[in-house]
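Class, discuss our next protein.
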Amino acid sequence: MSIRVLKPGLLTTVQDLGRTGFQRYGVIVGGAMDPFACRVANALVGNDESAAALEITLVGPTLRFDSTLLISICGADLSPTIDGQAVPLWRPVVLKEGGLLRFGAARHGVRCYLAVSGGFDLPQALGSYSTYLRAGIGGFQGRALSEGDVLEVRPSNNLGRAIADKLAAAAKDAPFASARWHVSSAMMPDYRPDPVVRAVEGPQMHGFDPESVADFFAGTFQVLPQSDRMGYRLKGEPLRLADPAELISEPVAFGTVQVPPDGNPIVLMADRQTTGGYPKIAQVITVDLPLIAQVQIGGSIRFRPVSLREAQELYWIAETEWEWLKKSIFMQFR
């Protein structure tokens, strides 16, 4: 079972939920920029949530399926089609052998995730399938996909086979069949081109001028073209320290908001460095990280303060809903 890359797209890489346990050695976590969409895509095809998936950025690839496979596509709407017919998002899809999956214009968002039942048959690097481009490790030979690459697929588990069997019966002469059941929009992050992102106080927030703290939470910041998987560079009212000082580098996390000397904040993303020395004004809460990952260049972001307790409660609610979603998929397709 395999998938052949006819066109690679702008940036298509293999990602999972990240490479943990090695930051003390200077190895970044990496992983999916939108962990929610990646987890759901895997769950919809019966995979473990940590299985490898394709992260497809803005301009998607053209893929030929050399076998009949169960897939799902979650995240940004990049206009996927199979043999010219639109493919629905956020639900399982059986694609027949010989089918061509293409992507078109980005209707909204930046990144979508393609999961295949059984997962991609690739070696792990330091316990993860995630591609770290700067180091050339993980994923498919440590790089983005190229024309002519062939991705081998592992056999499905029992749940994946059950889902595929139910859908295959409905396919008949069509190039694919999709489930009527899909993930409710009420369970998804509030994806939009100009999200309001919640953040808790950063360790150096009190070192900033009070007016700058007010500007950070009241202003609007534009996403600059220099943004990438390492960090989103923002432009808005420059933020100023009350008493500029040199800081000792300390650990940073996905969503840490650093402020370099020019006063324009940087939100650290999946491929962030392990430590940073710029003052940290805020930390984006975990449940809102997917919102930033789906903002296009030129889009805008606003920040809203929440307490640490609120952030923890929101995380607990999200994880409880995630467990309910997995049970719903099992009950629907077992």
